[in-house]
């Protein structure tokens, strides 16, 4: 775009005379001010001198912003700045994302322009679009947005800088910094937009938990045993749990000290675990309060593996079902419930018999349900320690178990508990 075009666009968006705007832009251009910055300066100029005009948007506090707003201004502190390359309308764009806050709350933002926003600084942003993202308002900064650095620092109750722990992450988080230890890695070749690409995937851990990660440009620093600081990662959902994405803009630094990782899945109250929206490799303890239908000796579609009823797959119609063992047990610890899913091996343990035993059992009784019934008798009302990966979605909270062990109470603890229970 020529300076003339820029002047035209800006003048029409401001509703003012083009000649004057062009003159101001030319002036700034002579001083070597980049065109985008020059446009912002001129815009601010008009905004300030013309505060009564209908073009002016009102400054709101973050708590006041709703998805019904179209444009607002805010005074905010920048909590985090993440940089990411995305495909938009067939073109590659570099965007900036993160969170900002004021005294009333915090909000996510996406910036389509590079305003040089820095973590920790306090700014006035004028003329921001409001977008809705998963039901919440989000700030959308574009070329009509003005940025003004403020000298006072806003006091906010949030951590500035984007440092986080693995347990606190949710899909959609951006501009995040993590200190983690690399626990597992696997080199993969995928067929992406630009042909075959090498990526690195694996698992990272810290004191609060473990999560899968993907490095889109494999880095040597991410090798097993290394403790690293990752700056500017973004979080996506991968098979129901948050996944750490290391992008081309992420900086990776190997740390001298070791980031401690709990050696087994981190233990959580069920309610807290469900609130995180999904977690990788965690540990829960609770009582099995019920064994759900669809447990015991079940049949799966040979094509898609889904559980079928009466030889009918919802996708593949009538099929020759394949027998399998599964348990869907409801685990409760008083803070919440999850459905624990046991595979064939773990089911065989709680059933105390394998697939052949289950088939014989069902044939003798002429009822497949006897298997589930026996499992129910074996585990309902008892306390278990479960390790696995938790997903939370429209189907509820499900934990794919990798370990399922009966908790044997220490006799002394048991005596103490019984004593307190009988006290009036
Ligand atoms: Zn099927």
UniProtKB/TrEMBL annotation:
InterPro entries: NA-bd_OB-fold, SOSS-B
UniProt GO molecular function: DNA binding
Keywords: DNA-binding
Region (Disordered): 27-64
SUPFAM superfamilies, A to Z: Nucleic acid-binding proteins
Gene3D superfamilies: Nucleic acid-binding proteins (2.40.50.140)
Coiled coil feature spans: none
Endpoints of the signal sequence: none
Basic and acidic residues composition-biased segments: 36-47
PANTHER family membership: OB FOLD NUCLEIC ACID BINDING PROTEIN-RELATED, REPLICATION FACTOR-A PROTEIN 1
Protein name: Single-stranded DNA binding protein
Provenance organism: Halovenus rubra
Highest classification ranks of the organism: Archaea, Methanobacteriati, Methanobacteriota, Stenosarchaea group, Halobacteria
